Amino acid sequence: MRAMLKAALPVRTQQLLSRWFRQPACHKQLKIPVEVYEILKGHIPREPNHGWQAPETAGRQLAAFAPILQQMREGKLREDFAALVEAVRLTRMDNPLVVEVGCGSAWNREVLGRFSNTAVRYVGLDYGVEMLKTAHATYPGVVTLVGDATDLPFRNESVDILVSGTLLMHLMSYQRAVEESRRVSRRWCIFHTVPLLQTRETTVLRKDAYGQPTLEIIFNNAELQAVFTANGLRVRAAIDSLPYDLEPVLGEPTVTKTFVCEVVER
Ligand SMILES: C[S@@+](CC[C@H](N)C(=O)[O-])C[C@H]1O[C@@H](n2cnc3c(N)ncnc32)[C@H](O)[C@@H]1O
Q1: Measured between alpha carbons, how far is 161 from 120 in angstroms, rounded to an integer?
Q2: Would you say 146 and 126 are in contact if contact means Cβ atoms under 8 Å apart?
Q3: Residue 143 forms beta bridges with which residues?
Q4: What percent of the chain has pLDDT above 70?
Q5: The pLDDT value given to residue 179
Q6: Cystine design at 185: which of 12, 109, 162, 174 (Cβ 3.0–4.6 Å)?
Q7: Model pTM score
Q8: End-to-end CA distance of the chain
């Protein structure tokens, strides 16, 4: 079916789409455990993703990241870390105020502190109190706020770079989150590590993450672009992030991208 749809497109469009959705050769795709995913159909609850706020999730997530952070400290950046560093570099901002929404335990502060081409003033925001406790235990002095991505506690145009930190995929109200990101940003919004589909419609999956039920949205690329455009955002770069090919689950390849968006309309 996918092949038939693709064949109906002009050759140049086929080539461009293939290039966009091809994983770069350096990316290592982990084997997808198909059985842990359930495709949700019909009614989808609005915001059931509270597993992130469970007391044990923060510690489990940080433990899972420990070896990846250790490699980063030895100079080997995982693809998502490299994508974030590159995204911030592309804004060409000097000493920007960066707010990371969905910061978890705030390891991206360390990533940017070590590898960014400019000093950044970092503020982490998360709706998980335990996440922020872990952030403070790991990074004493880090500035954090408890808050929700769909109702950000910032004034209009008060942030240089708003980073949505691998978060859009977990927000059933993602359109509202994009709107809020644009509202508080002076110029740049980075939507980090967004999983994308090319053909199938935006699809919600259920799986367990860190021992808690979690929803994941895999976005139809065209639909997501329309959400950005409707919110006055123009995509200036789409950077390859972590490999995440759900073809065995969804029947078509998926990738993740980190979008660097500029506010062009208010
Ligand atoms: C997958 S982790 C991302 C951690 C880190 N930013 C990264 O890029 O690796 C998603 C984070 O978003 C937080 N989160 C989920 N829903 C949220 C919401 N509505 N508002 C704020 N934070 C949220 C979770 O608590 C979790 O720490």
Answers
A1: 10
A2: yes
A3: 123
A4: 85
A5: 98
A6: 162
A7: 0.90
A8: 40
Residue 12 clears pLDDT 60, i.e. is over it: no
Cα of 166 from ligand 1 centre, angstroms: 7
What distance in Å separates the CA atoms of residue 119 and residue 96, rounded to the nearest whole number? 7
pLDDT band at 49; cut points 50, 70, 90: low
Of the candidates 133, 79, 75, 143, the one whose C-alpha atom is nearest the C-alpha of residue 109 is 143
Q: Is the distance from CB of 115 to CB of 77 less than 8 angstroms? A: yes
- What's the chain's average pLDDT? 89
Residue of minimum CA distance from atom 4 in ligand 1: 104
Residue 196 corresponds to which tokens in the numbers above?
């994308």
Cβ(197) to ligand 1 under 6 A? no
Per the listing, tokens 């081409």 go with 117
Tell me which residue of 244, 151, 263, 160 sits closest to 205, measured CA to CA: 244
Q: C-alpha 17: how far from its chain's center?
A: 21
Kindly state if the Cβ of 195 falls inside 6 Å of ligand 1.
no
Structure tokens at 18: 């293939």
Q: Give the distance, in angstroms, between the CA of residue 65 and the centroid of all CA atoms in the same chain.
A: 16
Tokens for 165, please give them: 């930190």
Summarize the confidence of residues 148-173 as an average pLDDT: 97
At 24, the pLDDT band (50, 70, 90 cuts) reads very low
169 CA to centre of ligand 1 in angstroms: 10
CATH of 40-263, one of 3.40.50.150, 1.10.10.10, 3.40.630.30, 1.10.230.10: 3.40.50.150
In our burial notation (b when 16+ CB lie closer than 10 A, e otherwise), range 24-37 reads: eeebeeeebeeeeb
